[in-house]
Design a protein that fits this description.
Number of domains: 2
Number of helices: 6
Radius of gyration: 18 Å
Strand order of the largest sheet: 1-3-4-5-6
Shape: globular
Strand content: 15-25%
Helix content: 25-40%
CATH class of the largest domain: Mainly Alpha
CATH architecture of the largest domain: Up-down Bundle
Amino acid sequence: MKLPREVPVMTLPEATLFPQALLPLYIFEPRYRQMLADALNSHRMFSVAMQRTDTARETPLLVAGVGLIRVSVAHGDGTSHLILQGLARVELEEVVQLKPYRIARVRPIETPPCDSVAADALLGKVRELLKEWLELGAPLPFPFLSHSKESSAPSKFSSAEILGYLESITNPEQAADLISCAVLKDAASRQAILEAADIETRLRRLTKFLLHEVRRKREDGGN
């Protein structure tokens, strides 16, 4: 799907939109209500960028995700719930509008070719660590399988079902992004993987983050 040259930008604290992942959102601010209405009447796309932590001003990090509105449910009070599906990593370039909401020119970040043997080996290590993490009793919300933010109950998937699903994803790029989306609670870790253009770097970073979580879980005695 071809991306527009310019897209609206929603800046959120600790939010990451990975390609292929589903992100439930609740739209309530007037500016974002207008943004949603305009998007639904055009290309149905907007970008989600993480807020920079070193400034009090609303300033998005420059690497973000662009998504397509798959479902949007409007409520009587003017708010909406929607499901945004990630399409691509992008770099935010020139800001062309600030009010009533930010619009920026975007440049898609292309994934360079990778060494398939190395990527498969790294993905195998990621799966081993993920399996151990689940066996230690770590929770896995699997947000890209959720249907609505209105439900606060975690999705009920067994470890076998989750691992079976991940085993069915043979594309290392897709697997790296979806596993990162599902397991990494730390916003900086997710952003570090979003910002990595090449697949091997994403998988190495994911391995590092998972290894840290597994070690911490072991030290906690699986609690």
